[in-house]
Amino acid sequence: MTIPDAQSPRTDGPVTAGVSLLPLDGGAIHVCQDGPRDAPALLLVHGSGASSLSWQAMVPPLAAAHRVVRIDLLGHGRSAQPADGAYGIPEQADRAARVLELLDAGPAVVVGHSSGGYTAVALAERHPGLVRGLVLVNTGPHRDALTAQDAAAAGAQVRWPPTDEEIRAFSGGSFPEGSDAPRILAEELRLMSFRSFLTTMRASYGYLAEQPVPERLAALGTPVQVVYGEQDGRWVPASYGDYRAVPGVRVDPLPGVGHTSILEAPERVAELVLSFAAGLGDR
């Protein structure tokens, strides 16, 4: 997949596949924009080891009536990978907030896939005025729901970048048999350094260890939708029911779908996101 060269942020007129490299404290952040500039904003946040490319198939339906902003978190994709970078979840959330401010794109509905959901929640915790609602897609609720810790994050030696088979081996069964997700993710992983990958994975586990996500959300009062694949092999699928403790939460299971639902069933996930966003009205 070809990505246009980075250019300065667009400041007026409609957004049509604009690509920017925003210089922030700590490292430049790669940003993609699609859809009408004056439409309600959606911020899409990928998971560990992925990038903004993960959302590509969802962009057309989302951008028809929304301003879609996709970012590569620090250490991922085409964003900077500083050796001394602050890759913690709070720091990633602060960078996402700064992107929304620079683009004048808030408040937004923030959609996070997998560990990207932790950045989304932290963004709502730290910058509530920039978040209208949260959509967590295959985002595990707590450490006890994890089926197996990644070998890489545990410190095991792995070849870098890993092969498709190695991704399957150390990803805890995230992908259904026959899924094309390992190949797609391998392409994205080749853009990362091993240190960036390891540090960001450990940051996600640390965030979960501090407090379960449902507890964080219950304290926030932000509208929340949870989407998950019923065949998720990374998190115990039944654990997504723990999110029902959050007042007013909407929980949507996807039958026949695994952990990488935004790659396996992008149209279905997009429909759910659009329905949730429409239900927020002018909030």
Q: What is the CA-CA span between the terminal residues?
A: 36 Å
Helix amount, in percent?
25-40%
Name the assembly state.
single chain
Which word captures the global form?
globular
List keywords for this structure.
single chain; 283 residues; alpha/beta; 9 helices; disordered N terminus
Description:
- This protein is an alpha/beta fold.
- It contains 9 helices and 8 strands.
- An 8-stranded mixed beta sheet has the order 1-2-4-3-5-6-7-8, with helices on both faces.
- Helix 4 (164-170) packs across helix 5.
- The longest helix is centred in the last third of the chain and has 17 residues, at 194-210.
- It starts with 14 loop residues before the first strand and ends with a helix.
Brief overview, please?
The protein has 283 residues and is α/β, with parallel strands linked by helices. It has 9 helices and 8 strands.
